[in-house]
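Ligand-bound model needed. NAP.
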Amino acid sequence: MRAVVIEKRGAPPVLRDLPEPTARDGAVLIDVETAGLGGWDVAGAYRLGIEYPCVVRGEGVGRAEDGRRVYFGERSVAPYGALAERTLVPSDEVWDVPDDVDDATAITMGIAGTGILLPLEAAGLTRGDRLLVVGGTGTLGQLGLRLGRHLGAGTVVAAARDAAALEAVRARGLADEVVVMTGAEDDVDRMRRASGGEGFDVVIDLVYGRPFEAALKATRWGARLVTVGTLAGSVASVAAGDLLYRTHTTVGTGQRSPAERHGVWRRLLGLAREADLRVPIVVHRRLDEGSAAWAAQAASPHAKILIDVAGAPTTGPRRKDLPCPRTPPPSP
Ligand SMILES: NC(=O)c1ccc[n+]([C@@H]2O[C@H](COP(=O)([O-])OP(=O)(O)OC[C@H]3O[C@@H](n4cnc5c(N)ncnc54)[C@H](OP(=O)(O)O)[C@@H]3O)[C@@H](O)[C@H]2O)c1
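Prediction:
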């Protein structure tokens, strides 16, 4: 079968032939139809413990051998993954997709949806809270802004580096205010002003490092901060005085049991309609574009990246309920 493979630590993925996975007890063979990539697939691809060569993990929707249409998360049995014609996934990580849910929604509500809803709930977001999402232009970030408002946040603010992407988020009504983070000292003042002057009650932090240090200083007493990702660095320098009367925690959704994540995903399929959980989507055609899809994700696409592994027509019935704008990938 064809697969997008990382040959060794640090190497960019390439398309090549790989022996097919074979059936085994406790795992399901899946013909992949649509694969999705997110921040974690690139940020975590070279971490310790991974053996190479391996298929790019991702997540996806496909057909099980018994014909069921299923979602599967990033837990393919090593060395397999979503960016391949076929994968092998532990049975409890394979979840039936309801007929009225399209591939894009099933995938976006997976690692990204569960990865942002649980931290918002861990932060105890309550009605009227001033919410800051650092990394608010990415997939988790945009979902976090939308869900935060749905859960009752009073003021919703997005912070990131790319000014145009932030403006697009504001124009879509996702954020009341946006803050362009430059890494300069005045990031804190501009964040605080965006909160209305008094500081944020809740911070969802998708990047950590220096941006987290600034966000912490732009909070008020009683604030709850939850770190979900480390795209800007795995270390932050925090003065005890800045943490006073605040709570900071981290949430790693992947550590929850499959049953718990399945329950949250099912809840999100309902919320996707109720709370209009749309994010921009870029669809790459067929596996041949797997390496380009990877490069697009590494460049911070401000969109969910999908790969049409089965190469189905873009306007076929399987796609007609796509909830999000579909754009072709930008030309190189
Ligand atoms: N803990 C969990 O369970 C869990 C689950 C899923 C994902 N995650 C993590 O959540 C994070 C976001 O994932 P995603 O899929 O939403 O990624 P994404 O779509 O690529 O979005 C990344 C966001 O972070 C910003 N960003 C990236 N690098 C930055 C830097 N150095 N300084 C400041 N901002 C930066 C980007 O904005 P700019 O382009 O403006 O920089 C963008 O807003 C990743 O770290 C991922 O590993 C965690």
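The chain has two domains: 2-109+277-327, 122-254.
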